[in-house]
Design a protein that fits this description.
Rhopdopsin 7-helix transmembrane proteins; globular; 3 strands; mainly alpha; 326 residues
Amino acid sequence: MVMMMVTNRAVGLQESNQSSVTTFTLLGFSEFPNLQAPLFLVFLLIYTATLVGNLGMIVIVRINPKLHTPMCFFLSHLSFLDICYSGVFTPKLLEILVVEDRTISFTECIIQFSFGCAFVIVEMFMLAVMAYDRFVAVCNLLLYTVAMSPKLCALLVAGTYTWGGLSFLTLTCSLLQLSYCASNIIDHFGCEFSAFLSVSCSDPYFSQMACLAISTFSEACSLLIILTSYGFILVTIIKMPSTGGLRKAFPTCASYLTAITIFHGIILLLYCVPNSKSSWLLVKVATVLFTVVIPMLNPLIYSLRNKDVKDTLRRLINSKLHSHSM
């Protein structure tokens, strides 16, 4: 229903403004013609690994009762989000690398941006929810099952999706108020926020301020939750009398914080830092990292650190090998 409203609004805007463009041409990485085929193969392999890894995580969590825990519940949603926002941009990126027709309609562009915006913001807060879950598990282990009740987990997930929906509606409506009567060439492989502003011929001040406000608020809130949670976790680990606990916990925390740093660092660069869009190549490479690469890395960083996940995966592989050898 929401996307139908956005689509109808986009169509209505085009009909009411005769000077508006109806299609855009995505340049992608056309400035490197010799790299089109290699980039296609690399991105195709990454996208395949993303789908296999994240779908595998969802299936593993569902089939193993030991994984019906709050953390794995959040991991399932993280995998779902990775599939979704990778699927918003990667197929179009693969398409424009191999075909000459690189056009995309205005309505398709708005929908691509809307979904991409929603999924990225939801994932931002899902990572914060997962950090809070780890804080409760490490610092309040005896009360973990009570504190992280199924009802609370559902409310936390619902809250992340609700804020993502409100954010994308606000930003999408701000973009729909602009006129697009300038060049229809977008120096990008997808309909990212700055790409819309680059082809607008009206004052983008409100859209820029809306994006800055939502991005900054979302970044500040999610990072505050993450840093506070991991701060308490590290303090608790340091106070542990057992050095074995330190050896196990520090690598896990380090891998989580590395993934979070990459994800948030790119978003800060693109949306919260003034004049960060001076290089379109930098914008495209950064967008590739968090729409193509990070969704592939998340299952490796988060899921394979879980012993029950690894055991379930090992049993599935062994059963498949055994069935093929029969």
